[in-house]
Design brief:
mainly alpha, 2 strands, disordered N terminus
Length: about 270
């Protein structure tokens, strides 16, 4: 009986993921203590191109995860497919189909954060050891994907709908009247209200937890690309908190972290 295929470089993967965590973490600390290093540029065409790339990668990962699920029956692949489908739809709606300026910056930040937290939660569930067991091809895998995706999308739509109805009562994220610009920042964490810090911390913690769970033995092929990618996703949450340019018309360091996240995913699934 042959042993299951496990990548032989589990230790190397942990070292690489740890080094990536330190590198991105140190760079984040630097832009906190040295605000001049923060990027805030208005580049409409470039920003929309980045958003489109991220949308395509999310759809590709979701599709490939579904194929893996249909072959293995592993609930982990099903949850990954649902997570990236939700991520793609949220990006499509808030980033491309509807102008964020029309919705208001506060609502868009809340809605975007709600989608990221749901995605992170689904990835934490997918990383649990019990979810990663292969049980053989499942019956009607497409129907299961549609049901799980429908429940996730409806839940997120309900949350964002409640946010929209009560948008005027949403707690302010910043002391300033509008989004901060890099040239206006003169100190660490300027103008951030506690709710902004809490939302960013929750999202980042969930992504980091999922990354750590995927590094537990047995190391599978999925861990070789999802674990480091989730490190980038976690810190992008923090960067968006520091400078909330979550619109495709503007580009910040958080956008480049999200682009790196997409690149790692694209390399991993290819």
């Amino acid at each position: 009986m042959t042993k299951p295929m496990i990548p032989p470089d589990g230790r190397s993967l942990r070292l690489f993921t740890g080094a990536l965590f330190l590198a991105v973490g140190i760079s984040t600390v630097l832009i906190v203590v040295a605000p001049g290093l923060r990027l805030d540029a208005r580049l409409p065409r470039f920003g929309i191109a980045l958003e489109t790339v991220r949308l395509v990668v999310a759809g590709l990962v979701s599709g490939l995860a579904y194929i893996r699920y249909s072959l293995s029956g592993s609930r982990s692949w099903l949850l990954i497919a649902v997570a990236f489908l939700v991520l793609g739809l949220n990006q499509l709606t808030l980033g491309l189909l509807i102008s964020p300026e029309r919705l208001g910056s506060r609502f868009v930040v809340y809605a975007w954060t709600a989608g990221r937290i749901m995605v992170a939660g689904l990835l934490v569930l997918s990383a649990l050891r019990s979810s990663r067991r292969a049980v053989g091809p499942p019956p009607r895998p497409l129907a299961r994907l549609m049901l799980a995706s429908g429940l996730a999308v409806l839940t997120l739509a309900a949350v964002e709908g409640l946010m929209w109805v009560s948008r005027t009562a949403l707690p302010p994220l910043f002391t300033a009247a509008g989004p901060l610009r890099a040239q206006e920042i003169t100190g660490a964490l300027p103008g951030l209200r506690p709710v902004s810090i809490v939302l960013a911390t929750v999202g980042a913690t969930l992504f980091l937890l999922a990354s750590a769970l995927y590094l537990r033995p047995p190391i599978e092929r999925i861990s070789t690309w999802l674990s480091p990618a989730l490190i980038l996703a976690a810190f992008s949450n923090v960067h968006y908190m520091l400078l909330p340019a979550v619109f495709p018309q503007r580009v910040s360091t958080a956008d480049f972290l999200r682009l790196a996240f997409s690149v790692v995913l694209l390399v991993g699934v290819s």
